[in-house]
Write a structure and sequence with these properties.
Blueprint (H helix, E strand, L loop, with lengths): L6 H14 L6 E4 L8 E7 L2 E7 L15 H7 L2 H7 L3
Antiparallel strand pairs: 1-2, 2-3
């Protein structure tokens, strides 16, 4: 498991990113998350709207190749997909 990023560091990084992108001072509101390590914010600035995705570096593993066999999936640690891909 990857440790969570420091909240202050994340806020600072987001503010710097938004400033460089011309969205400095944008109003941010949290959006519902998904089952990943990412989080999302709705940004509003000068009557423009956007979604900011915050993805901690190296927090997720690479996806399993779709053509992998059930044995290959197990060897790579993809247990749920291994169960769905073949008999147990």
């Amino acid at each position: 498991m990857v440790p969570a990023m420091n909240v202050t560091h994340t806020q600072d990084a987001c503010a710097q990113f938004l400033e460089r992108a011309g969205w400095g001072g944008a109003k941010l509101r949290p959006l519902a998350g998904d089952a990943s390590t990412r989080s999302y914010m709705r940004a509003e600035h000068n009557r423009r709207h956007a979604v900011l995705m915050i993805a901690p570096p190296k927090a997720e593993s690479a996806p399993c190749p779709p053509e992998a066999s059930d044995a290959e999936r197990r060897a790579l640690g993809y247990n749920a997909m291994a169960r769905l891909a073949g008999p147990n």
